[in-house]
Amino acid sequence: METDNRTIILDFILLGISSQRECDTWLFAIFLIMYVITVLGNLVIILAIRRDHHLLHTPMYYFLSNLSLVDICFTSTTAPKMLAGEFSGKRRITYGGCLSQMYFFIAFGITDSFLLASMALDRYVAICRPLHYATTMRRHICQLLVTTSWLASHLHSLLHTLLMSRLSFCASNQVPHFFCDVFPLLKISCSNTALNTLVVHSEGAFIVNGALVVVGLSYARILMTILRIPSANGKKKTFSTCGSHLIVVSLFYGTVIWVYFQPSSSFSPKNDTLAAIMYTMVTPMLNPFIYTLRNDRMKEALRKLFRRK
């Protein structure tokens, strides 16, 4: 931490989604509805799977229940503070609160990424190595994948949070975003941010790209297996077991790569805010619908859940 006579910033002001204050009421209403749908939708998925003993012990749905839990946590890291700011017009956040928000945002985001990779691995084994599925995707293996996802993501987040905590913020306390994220904070720091940027583009890229490589290789093998199926109906039936997951992966990784793997000098608050809305609000809200609308087993689990009620 620098020890000169610069003013030490004790809190930040989140500039929010729009600079036009007359839009605040509409933005608050829209994002409140999205947040409620996200929490309720993912909560229903968790309850439906937890109450169906067979689904809970099926790897794909075990991962899905964990993904839904992470999606609730991920959205809740940013949405309540953003909604409070849009409603009251007060967008101030303490220095400690800002670093805490960044920590949990990164941790839950990376956990999401790892779980999506685990689900892709599950689909690869189910489609490409069906005879080995029961022995490969055993219960303790699935639990190990989930536990490792949580642990590795929090260690990754701790590294970036500690690196951020060593920076000084003296030129401005206005964060050009609706939550505390890495690049907006680096943009307003008056310290040398070369190490932070290097770690984002090296260690950060390795973590995210590592999960993305698992997804890519899994689906490459899945595609090769599907193409060898002689009948069109067989191809369609096999692809339908992983189509929902592929849609979610595309939505999530597409926006993450757009935001975090561009040069920090080309950071655009407007574009990155729109992308952040996609992966913090839109994708977690859509996930329950994507995974249930075309899934007969989830539909049946939901019917059982609501019949019990």
Number of domains: 1
The average pLDDT is: 87
Name the overall outline.
Answer: globular
Beta-strand content = under 5%
Subcellular location: Cell membrane
Protein name: Olfactory receptor
Domain G-protein coupled receptors family 1 profile: 41-291
Membrane topology: Multi-pass membrane protein
Q: What is the gist of this entry?
A:
This is Olfactory receptor. With 309 residues, this protein is mostly helical.
Structural commentary:
The protein is mainly α. The chain has one domain (11-307): Rhodopsin 7-helix transmembrane proteins (Rhopdopsin 7-helix transmembrane proteins). The chain has 12 helices and 3 strands. The protein has helices spanning 24-51, 53-56, 59-88, 95-128, 133-136, 139-165, 182-188, 194-227, 232-240, 243-260, 269-293, 296-308; strands at 11-14, 92-94, 174-175. It has a 3-stranded mixed sheet with strand order 2-1-3. Helix 8 runs antiparallel to helix 9. The chain is globular, with a radius of gyration of 21 Å. It starts with 10 loop residues before the first strand and ends with a helix.
